[in-house]
Amino acid sequence: MPTLTRKPLSWFKTDPNQPRKHFDAAELQALGNSLKIKQLQPVVARSDGTLEIGERRYRAAGEVGVKELDVIITDEELSETEIRIYQLMENIHRVELSDPEKCSACEELVQLNPGWTNKDLATRLNLTVGTITKYRSAYRCIPQVKQALDEGRIGITAVYEISRAEPAQQADLLTRHVAGLSRDGLSAHIRKQKKAATPQIRTKRIACPLPSGVSITASGQELSLDDFIEALGEAQKEARKAREQGLDSRTFGAVMKDKARKR
After folding, report:
1. pTM for the whole thing?
2. Cβ neighbours of residue 6 under 8 Å, at least 6 residues apart?
3. Mean pLDDT, to the nearest integer, of 177-204?
4. What are the respective helix, strand and coil percentages of the chain, to the nearest 5?
5. Residue 51 to residue 16: CA distance in whole angstroms
6. 170 pLDDT band (50/70/90 cuts)?
7. If 64 and its partner were Cys, which of 32, 57, 174, 182 is the partner (CB 3.0–4.6 Å)?
């Protein structure tokens, strides 16, 4: 008969033949942080400690220093075929909440706790503030935008972009996006609208010292704050690409200088 117990990580052994071969480091960190708060679902292992279900949870626990895991120890003798079937079923049939469901759940939690900020909610769910801001953006939009999200006609990233515009402009932006305007196109269109509505003070150099001690500086011909924000976004995209390519900071700087010269 299967038994539910708690075992130290050292007791477990991974199954080298399990179907999942890739484990994303950022996802493991996030999952590990949630395990620190509460393990909602036990892993499943054989009597010798070999994991049948839950290797992600096991690895995530090790990443963040969780020492023990709840485990169901099965006494059923399974063939290799049966084990593979159970492992595949566990992964293939796992379905995440949809974006509209996540939006509604986040908003409901804030309604239940009126004093919570996005940061409070992010801390409790082990998510970034940016993720929570994105999910709550649907409730800063006109009803037509929320309806389009619920019906699957637009995605949550487009909803976030539209939420940055004034309500009077959102219907037009929704129409443009459904007609084919990309998320980046939405962002550019919103910036143009804001530029037209707000007088722009421009300067040749913007310096932004951060609390971490790092200072970010942008220079160019008559930079506005919107130009600075756009430049930071472009720099962030290029830096992420460079990190994926395995470049260090010095090489990244040299590559960007070379690209600027060619332009």
Report:
1. 0.56
2. 68, 69, 70, 71
3. 81
4. 55, 15, 30
5. 10
6. very high
7. 32
